[in-house]
């Protein structure tokens, strides 16, 4: 059991956390995407504490968060010109770039045994101040128990990791709510490994990239690709199809499911609430408007954790029909959350 200290977001506590990073301690801090569980990414023993706290598979690589671009050439080699175009347009911000790692600099545990390194400069002012105060690259996956929905508020972190980490910042809600876009530049043409709030269309305005393909095979070059992720405690089914047909199908299934499960939940858009059957032991939780996918992304993990709080036994979720832009990232997280348990109607 670790004695966890809760920190305020002032300069005094940022200095305490930065000193903790230097000493090999673990610090949970808000970014603009989700909360990160950070440690000195160049210290093998410190990074091991991340894996231990999360229960994370050892071949799942970590993102190194840096405070200025000068760190890139200390950590990576064969950096293509496209990288600097991306930096000019998207850093600091929710874009992670995978490059060839400089040998004998970054511990193997941080790289997940790969010869590539994932780098990001976060846009959250507290995260940047913490990194620059410590003057070290901070390895930081999402600050949740491995497999659970990522934390978008410090209360989620306390629920999952209190007593397992040294420091937790009480930083409120994160503004975006889903993890960064991950772009692989280590092998030539850019390839999206994980979709996020920076979309394929936005990237294509700057550099040429390959679109994200769900269920990519091969080595795990990015977090959030292979393993069970973002899942609520109850089993979950996603229904995908035209709007009205999806709601009709959800309503058709509710009575049957209530014969099997004590309580069920329905995840829907705001526009769906009045169309869904109302009955006892059914909890309808809207995730946001279908016309405002930023709100959906921001609320998604919070909504999944709400079902845990409600202790539902089964979840029906509507999917996003014909996803594009940010919809691709939201669909990706829903697919992971339900373990690809999807019915297309």
From TrEMBL:
ATP binds at residues 56, 60, 116, 150, 194, 230. Keywords: ATP-binding, Cytoplasm, Nucleotide-binding, Nucleotidyltransferase, Transferase, tRNA processing. It is found in: Cytoplasm. The keyword Transferase applies. Its EC number is 2.7.7.87. One of its GO terms (biological process) is regulation of translational fidelity. Required for the formation of a threonylcarbamoyl group on adenosine at position 37 (t(6)A37) in tRNAs that read codons beginning with adenine. This is Threonylcarbamoyl-AMP synthase. The lineage of its organism: Bacteria, Bacillati, Bacillota, Clostridia, Eubacteriales.
